[in-house]
Write a sequence for this structure.
């Protein structure tokens, strides 16, 4: 620093990099007194520095300022640069204001537009849907959407306080104001403060909103895969997923909870496979199982798979069926179990005040509960007991406008069906490796329970439940991992069950 330059300025703020692009960026900083300045820049570790002055619109050097902003251009994409900011002293000499060089890089041409996981559709209903995906760097996120074949898009952004969120790699965009039973086209887009709006890859995906009116369609139901994506992919083929309107993942689809930073296992364990086979265009229903409650990064569930209301329980209507998705909690008692019990109290209040009185629920032809752990059947742990304590009286009604026809569940890793008022378990016995398990019969229940199979506990090791909805009945069949059918039955409007193939029956 020049010893005779007594008013020599110093940096008071910066330097900062803003408006990065593939070929340049802006450098901004502030000095303690007015001065003329610029930037010395070079590729990191190579060659001589070149000089970029702060200039006005006419290209003239613009000085005598406290605030400085220099546009550096004509750089190489995806290249690291080092730079100094400088001032010009009274004799015209360039004096560096930062002793050590700062480092930054220009953007890769595709940076921010790369989707690492997704997009995947969920939270589908008659007038809304959510789109989720993960990018390579933190970006703002939006979705271009339009009715299929129509010109122009509207863009829906991921916002908080009406501001686009630019600080996350995980994106969920909730889209509303859709028309029922209508085909839409969509594409994810990104936003950052430097390059504004960018389309990810231009690919248009389609989906169809659900309908509140009678319609024949198919859903697939699987659970407890524990990262066996080979089984998941096989079930997508056997169930002819392309003919389905929705795929339900009813919990414990991860290997063993969220033990990977930022929930990476969630994608590797099953969402990537879902995206490959259906989730870009056929929506998924995600149910939280007991394993999704565990792990240091288990909060990722609410970041990546949250509902529009930020709950883990919700409803939707499709065709003549009203679906209730319940969170059955964590099955192990412990220090936090009293806290977990609050979710049952919350759900009971929600069912009483919002769900059961609703016209969508009362006018449905069929009502189906989807959950991870059932109210009764082959096991009777803490969560099953709470399910009965808080929900049994609400779900066990017989009036035509309130009857529950079916509960689809998992957890026990052994396929079984319990018909209404039955003291028997159909298809497989209610024990593991010859050991009797706690069991609650269906004798006091007015609805059918079906629990899906998963690996490691005997039986057929994994099952897929296929439900075809018709105007007059629910037609279900269950496939083993090789595609063999092990169960088939139907449920009529009054809840009566008819077996469509011979199946073994084991008394409790």
């Amino acid at each position: 620093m020049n010893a005779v330059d007594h008013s020599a300025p110093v940096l008071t703020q910066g330097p900062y990099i803003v408006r990065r692009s593939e070929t340049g960026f802006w450098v901004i900083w502030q000095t303690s007194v007015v001065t003329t300045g610029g930037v010395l820049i070079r590729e990191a570790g190579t060659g001589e520095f070149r000089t970029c002055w702060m200039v006005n619109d006419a290209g003239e050097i613009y000085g005598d300022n406290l605030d400085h902003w220099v546009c550096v251009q004509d750089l190489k994409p995806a290249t690291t640069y080092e730079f100094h900011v400088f001032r010009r002293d009274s004799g015209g000499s360039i004096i560096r204001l930062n002793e050590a060089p700062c480092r930054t890089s220009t953007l890769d041409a595709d940076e921010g537009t790369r989707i690492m996981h997704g997009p995947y559709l969920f939270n589908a209903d008659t007038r809304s849907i959510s789109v989720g995906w993960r990018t390579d760097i933190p970006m703002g996120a939006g979705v271009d959407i339009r009715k299929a074949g129509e010109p122009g898009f509207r863009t829906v952004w991921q916002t908080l306080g009406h501001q686009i969120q630019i600080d996350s790699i995980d994106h969920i965009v909730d889209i509303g104001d859709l028309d029922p039973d209508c085909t839409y086209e969509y594409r994810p887009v990104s936003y950052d403060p430097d390059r504004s709006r960018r389309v990810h890859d231009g690919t248009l995906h389609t989906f169809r909103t659900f309908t509140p009116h009678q319609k024949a369609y198919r859903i697939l139901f699987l659970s407890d895969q524990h990262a066996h994506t080979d089984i998941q992919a096989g079930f997508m083929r056997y169930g002819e997923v392309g003919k389905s309107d929705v795929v339900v993942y009813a919990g414990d689809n991860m290997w063993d909870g969220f033990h990977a930073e930022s929930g990476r296992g969630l994608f590797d364990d099953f969402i990537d496979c879902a995206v490959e086979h259906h989730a870009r265009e056929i929506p998924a229903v995600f149910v939280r199982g007991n394993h999704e409650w565990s792990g240091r990064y288990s909060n990722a569930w609410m970041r990546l798979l949250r509902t529009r209301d930020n709950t883990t329980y919700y409803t939707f209507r499709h065709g003549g069926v009203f679906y209730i998705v319940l969170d059955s909690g964590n099955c192990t008692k412990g220090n936090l179990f009293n806290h977990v019990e609050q979710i049952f109290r919350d759900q009971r209040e929600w069912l009483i005040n919002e769900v059961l009185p609703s016209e969508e629920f009362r006018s449905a032809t069929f009502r189906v509960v989807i959950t991870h752990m059932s109210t009764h059947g082959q096991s009777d742990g803490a969560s099953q007991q709470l399910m009965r304590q808080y929900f049994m009286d609400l779900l066990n009604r017989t009036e035509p406008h309130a009857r529950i026809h079916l509960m689809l569940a998992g957890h026990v890793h052994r396929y079984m069906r319990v018909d209404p008022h039955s003291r028997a378990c159909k298809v497989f016995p209610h024990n593991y490796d010859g050991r009797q398990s706690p069991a609650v019969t269906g004798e006091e229940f007015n609805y059918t329970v079906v629990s899906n199979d998963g690996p490691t506990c005997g039986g057929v090791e994994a099952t897929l439940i296929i439900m075809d909805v018709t105007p007059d009945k629910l037609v279900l069949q269950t496939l083993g991992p090789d595609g063999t059918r092990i169960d088939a039955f139907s449920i009529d409007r009054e809840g009566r069950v008819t077996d469509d193939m011979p199946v073994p029956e084991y008394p409790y």
Observations:
- The helical segments are 229-238, 264-279, 300-304, 337-355, 359-363, 382-395.
- The radius of gyration is 30 Å.
